[in-house]
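call fold(seq) -> tokens
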Amino acid sequence: MATLLSIFAFGTFVSTTLGYNLFREYSGSNFFDGWDFYVNLISSFIFEGNVTWVSKTDALSQGLAYVNNQGHVILKVDNTTNVTYGQQRNSIRITTQDAYELGSLWVIDANHIPYGCSVWPAFWSFGPKWPDDGEIDIIEAINLMDYNQMAIHTTPGCTQSGKNYGQLGTSGPTTNCSEASGCTVMETSPNSYAAGFAAAGGGVWATQFEATGIYIWFWSVGFPFILFREDVSKLAIYAILAPGCATVY
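ret:
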């Protein structure tokens, strides 16, 4: 079972008049300096997972988090231990030490994402008091899903209407972002997750966090970072989540 996630670079950009300037980059040998490892004895029921989140020390010693000889960051679940039924499997969950405000744009470049039976990969952001202050899901799929699902979870008052803004993704059944499922957008590109993503050699997501709304783009390999030195309004938007309701982090 393929269970490793290789992140080549995660950059955060700060808005300028027309584009963005790089504010923070997480990559290579210094990647883990900017993250906290979430630790618990048993995975919280809210995640419905059968894992134990381990510390940075344990993750490094057990080979669950490391930088390979290509400079790629590997984040993975323990896929070598024979875990008996009812026991937890070791895995990791990390959170940036920095928080990013309105006017920022987040980019993640991934070479591989786990997919298939029993896995739950996710790349997401949340407010200071989670879950009350909201959540933006940029990468998420559960179990046998074969597509990536983006979502926003908010308090009452935010709605999603991406179709009116030229959105390329497929919106979910509700536009009320305060419902349990949140406002969702499904990616229709076969290379955005699962076997198609792996065969393509990875891809890049960019999330724009603005007062006018939350906008997400996806590209397959070969991402042109120069685009963020230009006017991002010229780029085709893959998902638009709650325009005018950007109150989550």
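DSSP finds two helices and 17 strands in the chain.
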